[in-house]
Write a structure and sequence with these properties.
single chain, 4-stranded parallel beta sheet, 3-stranded antiparallel beta sheet, globular
Length: 217
């Protein structure tokens, strides 16, 4: 990896303007890929933001464009798809019903498995989706930031931050409920071509200030 990675910080006056700009970025990166486009999404408030703006932005490239997308999730709670806590379940309801990504190109966890087996199963699915790549290289990852600074299900001072070998890890002691989760690891995040961190609301102000001042973004 190069020693210097260009960064850009954008501030928006409203969630609507943030959503519009974010959706345009996704559509732009998809068009620039010239073919297959791999996208990793986080949950939380991003579900609402993207579900409102992304379908229209993606349609500008033609209705067939999303058929070349591969969609995966940066982390997931080990709950049934029907559970309100399910990231895939939320996107399935609010976004995937509006955008034509083939079901076989949406990479999801199997929530019926024990947490460690679910992580291994998800890693194998990603390897199949990224054939020929030892490390999945996403064209774009869209990540959130928690008030404590966590992203994906990688929490401050947690041992998973030291994981160097696995591309997907399980966590059974999440500081934020539910306790059992599946997450991409830092090597996958660092390998992505573009990573966008999205934060909204006053609760994120303090950690964002800390992150920007220390140069982590």
């Amino acid at each position: 990896m190069p020693g210097f990675v260009p960064r850009h910080i954008s501030v928006f006056p409203s969630p609507q303007e943030l959503g519009s700009s974010l959706a345009q970025l996704v559509a732009q990166r998809a068009a620039e890929s010239g073919g297959r486009f791999s996208l990793g999404l986080s949950g939380g408030s991003l579900v609402r933001i993207l579900s409102q703006e992304l379908p229209a932005a993606a349609a500008l490239s033609g209705p067939a464009a999303p058929a070349r997308w591969v969609l995966a999730f940066c982390d997931e709670r080990l709950v049934p798809v029907e559970d309100p806590e399910s990231t895939y379940g939320a996107y399935k309801t609010h976004l995937l019903s509006k955008i034509s990504i083939p079901e076989k190109q949406v990479v999801i966890i199997n929530p019926s498995l024990p947490v460690e087996e679910a992580a291994s199963d998800y890693a194998e699915k990603l390897k199949e989706a990224f054939q020929g790549e030892n490390m999945p290289v996403f064209d774009l990852l869209i990540l959130g930031i928690g008030p404590d600074g966590h992203t994906c299900s990688l929490f401050p001072d947690h041992p998973l931050l030291q994981e160097k070998e696995k591309i997907v890890a399980s966590i059974s002691d999440s500081p934020k409920p539910p306790p059992e989760r599946i997450t991409l690891t830092l090597p996958v995040l660092n390998a992505a071509r573009t990573v966008v961190f999205v934060a909204t609301g006053e609760s994120k102000a303090a950690i964002l200030k800390q992150v920007v001042l220390c140069g982590a973004l």
